Amino acid sequence: MQQSQAPGAAPGFTPLPDMNLLPALDALLRAGSVAGAAAELNVSPSAMSRTLARLRRVVGDPLLVPSGRGLTLTPRAHGMQPRVQAALNTAVAALRPPREVELATLEREFRIRTNDGIAMSLGAPLLALVAREAPGVRLRLLPEGDEDPADLRTHVDLDVGELPDPLPHDVRSSALGEHRHVAVARADAEFAREPLTPRRFAGLPHITVTRRGRTYSVVDERLAELGLRRDVLATAPTYAAACFFALRTDALALVPSEVAAEAARVMPLAVLEIPLELPVATTGMAWHVRVDTDPAHRWLRGAVARAAAEVDPDRAGIKRSGAGGAATATP
Predict the structure, then answer these.
(1) What's the predicted TM-score (pTM) here?
(2) Of the listed ranges 53-62, 85-94, 247-256, the one predicted with least confidence
């Protein structure tokens, strides 16, 4: 006899059975009796008898048959029992809220996109934290390029840096902190012995960081307001390269303060305050809603936030301009 199809169903489509029968089937196979299964599921014996009748029609087997004064499982029922219990456990687990992640046994790879400056300053404390708390986790730091937040939907787990505004509706974000730019120069350079004034700052050759080769920025706007211009000796593709350029020339490299602090820790560089009122940039992290409630990803976001809090951008000893460490805007 040909099985009837649901209206509008594709040829060959087999309708799913009533999945509400699964808990009853599991209880019946374990209890081996209608009364025992009814008591377990808190229903009447007559209701369980009707459910058993439905199960017999669906399965095509009597499942429980008389044996003396009780019932016994058929061979088909015996064979089904472990698969039914496993299916029910899997279904229940799928519908439960995610458990807290076991960091000690977590094995996961996370892809984090960021620029080299953040990698320089944030990378070491983040790696130390990961090694200490989740030694099975591996981080893959991806370089910035033509950043598209849509990449978070597929192959990027976390974006860290200056985030675009607005972000797509399906992307979440959190602020990590603010950063400002400073200048680095050879520690033995004559001009690095004293704090900079706007005129001295403009008179020195500059190295700026840009992936697109642009030389005009808000620094030039602030200098123009004072009637000053600067000479951009070179542009560098990364902050690390800019620091190396400054180390071997008589030029200033303009980099974020946390990058300057990290570079000055391992290189003979002086860190100088830029004597201009420059805007402060906000650093944040962004992720797709697909991982918003994932316990492992939630831990990763917390780890990044804690590592960022450890970064001290002023630990290199910045030579500041003007009295009391405040920047001055007079040449």
Answers:
(1) 0.69
(2) 85-94
Would you call 22 helix, strand, or coil by DSSP?
helix
Degrees, nearest 5: CA angle 210-161-115: 45
Apex CA 172: angle with CA 174 and CA 159, to 5°?
70
Give the closest residue to 307 by CA, choosing from 56, 132, 150, 162. Answer: 132
Query: What is the rounded distance in angstroms from the CA atom of residue 189 to the CA atom of residue 299?
Result: 45
Euclidean distance between CA atoms 329 and 277, whole angstroms: 7
**CB distance 249 to 194 below 8 Å:** no
CA gap 283, 160 in Å, rounded: 7
Answer yes or no: are the C-beta atoms of 112 and 160 closer than 8 Å.
yes
Q: Do residues 63 and 77 touch, judged by C-beta distance below 8 A?
A: yes
Neighbouring CB atoms inside 10 A of 279's CB total: 10
Distance, CA of 224 to CA of 85 (rounded, Å): 76
At 71, list the tokens.
Answer: 């019932």
CA distances for 152 relative to 51, 147, 212, 227, 286, angstroms: 47, 10, 23, 44, 8
Handedness of CA 182, 188, 191, 196 (dihedral sign): positive
Question: Measured between alpha carbons, how far is residue 110 from residues 103, 156, 157, 250, 299 in Å?
Answer: 14, 8, 6, 40, 11
pLDDT, one tens digit per residue, over 206-229 is 999 987 767 889 999 999 999 999
